[in-house]
Amino acid sequence: MKVAAIALEKPNNLAWYEQYADKRRMRMEWYYPLKRAFDICFCILAFPVVFPVLSLCYLAIKVGSPGDVFFFQKRTGRGGQRFKMYKLRTMVSNAEELKEKYMHLNELTYPDFKITKDPRITRVGRFLRKTSLDELPQILNVLKGDMSLVGPRPTSFSAKTYSLWHTARLEAKPGMTGLWQVSGRNELDFDDRLRLDIAYMKNQCFALDFQVLVRTCGTVFHGRGAN
Questions:
Q1: Tens-digit pLDDT profile for residues 97-112
Q2: How many domains does the chain divide into?
Q3: Tally of helices (H runs) and strands (E runs) in the chain
Q4: For residues 43 and 48, what is the distance between their CA atoms, to the nearest angstrom?
């Protein structure tokens, strides 16, 4: 399903991210390869800073709780393809087994899952989530081409659970951050996040990507956790 076929309800006053479609100065067939080149260059340049931070996080997780430091989770990417996304472990090692036990505390619509004070999260994990440091290993996903710096956040559940209109988001490569990261984060339900994903896809350009990255830094600075 093409994004242009998706009808979005718009308020009388356009949101800040809905103004960029009219400001594009680059054809989309040039935008995508240049965006890929920017992703690679950014990750390579950031690595000297990211590596020592990851090393400190590694030690903190090792000392804080038993189990592996890195957490690998299947996520849904472009075209519905599943890929392995890298994160730092923020929960107890048997968190997936405990998910069913705490399902009655879920605050979002299934298949989303969120508990504000999730008992599975470790002490170190709470800090990593609050600062979004647990997301840093996804730089490897960006370098591999599974993800981009900016785009729809990949879901942990497969595209088989999507409604038909949800599949519009699968036209874009998922990102480390996106519109919903700076517009409510985990407080938004999946349908609301989907509308933001589609809005991003309709307005995407370098100017919007830059704004999302800047706003993400501000959101992380104020300590709102990510997915």
A1: 787 788 877 777 776 7
A2: 1
A3: 6, 4
A4: 10
- Phi first, then psi: what are they for 128, rounded to 5°? -65, -40
**Residues of the domain holding 186:** 3-219
CA distance readout (Å), 140 to 98, 171, 184, 187: 28, 21, 26, 27
- The sign of the CA dihedral 93, 94, 100, 101 is negative
The residues, ordered by sequence, that sit 6+ positions from 120 with a Cβ below 8 Å of its Cβ are 91, 92, 95, 98, 99, 102
pLDDT digits (tens, 9 = 90+) for 162-188: 888 989 999 999 999 999 888 765 567
How far, in Å, CA of 193 to CA of 146, rounded?
20
Q: Is 185 in contact with 75 (CB distance < 8 Å)?
A: no
Does residue 227 belong to any structural domain of this protein? no
- Asked if the structure places residue 125 within a domain, the reply is yes
